[in-house]
Amino acid sequence: MMQAEAFMREALREAEKDESEVPVGAVVVRNGQVIARAHNEREGGSPFAHAEMLAMERACRAIGSRRLRGCTLYVTLEPCPMCAGGLMMAEIDACVFGAYDPRQGCCGSVYTLPQDPAFFHHVSCAGGVLEEECRALLRRFFADRRSAPTV
Length: 151
Fold this sequence. Notes:
Elements: H1 2-15, E1 25-30, E2 33-39, H2 51-63, E3 71-77, H3 81-89, E4 94-99, E5 124-126, H4 131-147
Parallel strand pairs: 3-4, 4-5
Antiparallel strand pairs: 1-2, 1-3
């Protein structure tokens, strides 16, 4: 678990990089090394620019393959349906996340898409790593948004 916490701390650092974005960060790890990292970039104009999707895309480029076999994604928030589908399409080995998402989480909360027997590739998912720190980052972001004056 110590290794998972260290990689989740990397994802947390990534999540804090852009104050205008919902603070979600992700890193892809292969052979004990971070090979890609990303944070949300949706405010740049793309609804698809979730931290998980960007990190997996960058990892694919880094290893020169569309398959992320032998890799693990560490992300601060449980993946949504799109990102959970991306895990399967990338054929990544595992996803480790921090905070559960009871509204949209598809790696155990609302649904467990990456382990649905209807699909070919299954992804091992585990949540709750540094959960309080990941959740606190999100709470602060949304509390600040609610208290900010509207223009």
